Amino acid sequence: MSNMNLYDTIPNNVNLSDDKKLKRALEKWLPDFQSWWMDMGPEGFQANDVYLRTAIDVDPKGWAHFDHVKMPDYRWGIFLAAQEKDRKIGFGDHMGKPVWQEVPGEYRGMLRRLIVTQADTEPASVEQQRLLGQTCPSLYDLRNLFQVNVEEGRHLWAMVYLLHGYFGRDGREEAEALLARRSGNPDKPRILGAFNEPIEDWLSFFMFTMFTDRDGKYQLLALAESGFDPLSRTTRFMLTEEAHHMFVGETGVGRVVERTAQLMKEGNDDVRKAGGVDLPLIQKYLNLWFTLSLDLFGGEVSSNAADFFASGLKGRQKEDRLDEHTALDQYYNLNVFRDGKRTMEEVPLRNALNEVLRDSYVDDCQRGVDRWNKTLEEHGINFELKLPHRSFHRHIGEFANVHFDPEGNFLSDEEWDKRKDEFLPSEEDKVFVKSLMHAVREPGKIANWIAPPKRGINGQPFEFEYVRLS
Ligand SMILES: [Fe+2]
Ligand SMILES: [Fe+2]
């Protein structure tokens, strides 16, 4: 057991009671967090008992704790992975030196920016998802939504701990600003694009947890390599929580695909009439959320990415599996679009690190899509879901301001306007998907447009009362 103080006002395994100043600062932030949660967290379910998993320790055993709790009583807090003895910086210009336990002065601004950008996504997704409880397809899904939401709340704590603990007054100001911005609000939006997009139906929620939370995984993997040890330890523990979010997304979309396949096999030529989501429509939602998530990695050529790497603040995922850790004197062959045609351009590797991370992400997404296609194949359905070409529907980087179809063929602005509803959800599509969203709240029952899960949570049956509504 690490020294877990689970029942302190602020649960933690960082001996918070020994650091009076930090403890006071966080206790001052706590009521602001709580009121943000009541205002912007899941609407309408704060008084219900939810079957939640709570971390009671950071080792794998500490992960098996499930109980019915009210969300406001969730043990939000500060949990860091154990400190690795004699850990050294594993990449960049400071490679081989001991990791930093305090903020390196020359990188203070850069580090703060990295932390704030990550931190901002956590409350944003809770805000985006706050109304979904009202249209849940089953109690099982409702519970999974709330599990994701409370853990995003905890991720906010994880990042705010770093801001309060290591950045003094400007850290405290950033922590306050994190509770003041609002997803989708034009006057005080969240920092990154995808985190201002509305999530108003469960198909979008599953796509978001599949694709956007997976961007989170890759950002956390890169930050877990950080030479700033507290950031590395914080993100390493966040990754264990993040895995569940992607499980919710991948199996959620998988169950929609499964249900659609069943409806097709039952002889429904028009899946929509049968109350399901047709495969071309699933493809459009995939196209939307995959591309919004691709943008989160940033521009293909980025001097910021080079600086983050050189300074030892943000590495590549699983840096220790690579042979070479300076990324100097190496080049990346980048796919670009110049003067109306596709061509390759050599970019110094350090400048291409956003693209390197995006490559791993795309491969990971493809593995999930393959599993969905396997379901279709098992049902004998001749249809393949596909990740669109990387140039399609991008708003950041090389392909912003130019249009392509999902195969990567160039489209004039005029063609794009004419055809975009073929590729992305149209207004009509969105209205249709929303028309399917009726809450199903009896234990063991499920909405018509999605198949039940193969198994329940923590060995419980699907019929279990995952959320007590009365
Ligand atoms: Fe998160
Ligand atoms: Fe997440």
From TrEMBL:
Record has Oxidoreductase as a keyword: yes
InterPro entries: Aromatic_CoA_ox/epox, Benzoyl_CoA_Oase_BoxB, Ferritin-like_SF, RNR-like
GO annotations of cellular component type: cytosol
GO MF: oxidoreductase activity
The protein's enzyme class: oxidoreductase
Keywords, in A-Z order: Oxidoreductase
Natural source organism: Eiseniibacteriota bacterium
Name listed for the protein in its UniProt record: Benzoyl-CoA 2,3-epoxidase subunit BoxB
Name of the gene this protein is made from: boxB
